[in-house]
Amino acid sequence: MTAMTHAPEMFREAVAALQAIRPRPEMTLEPVRAPQRLAPWSYALSCDATGPADVTATGRLVLLHDPAGPESWDGVLRMVVYVRAEIDRELASDPFLPAVGWSWLTDALETSGASFTALGGTVTETSSARFGDISGPARTDDLELRASWTPSDQHLRPHGEAFCQLMSSVAGLPPVGVSLFGHRQSG
Hints:
By secondary structure, this protein is of the alpha+beta class. It is 25% helix and 34% strand. A hairpin with a 5-residue loop joins strand 2 and strand 3. The radius of gyration is 18 Å and the shape is globular. The relative contact order is 0.21.
């Protein structure tokens, strides 16, 4: 990608909207190197969120811009999200977990007021067992959500806010202003 000053105005406005997002205190949000081969213009944010009982969620939000408007995108901008969190074994055995994970994304997009089309993705549960000399817990269970959608315009603040809401849900954070019993809310 060439310097941001040479980027199309639509892309610059979209990036500025994402840079204006201010996450809640339990999260860190920072720019990271974006994929270079998916579109002529790209920008990415990385997010780490820590929830109750030290549940950690990591995620990445990627903005792609292709002025040619690939047919599968149904537009010239595309948002791509990847989120991963370790989950407890009991939750991992819940047959409704994939549907709940997907609803975290759709609910976040809806409540943030993000306008979009062409939403698609997957929710994957994985269990890993460690053997031999590999250190760490004997077994871990993870949830991964991968999705993409096409924003209706370059005003992406609601999309960035939806990403932060998704990260909060995956990490098990209560809504802002709500405290869990036995936990102090920072801020």
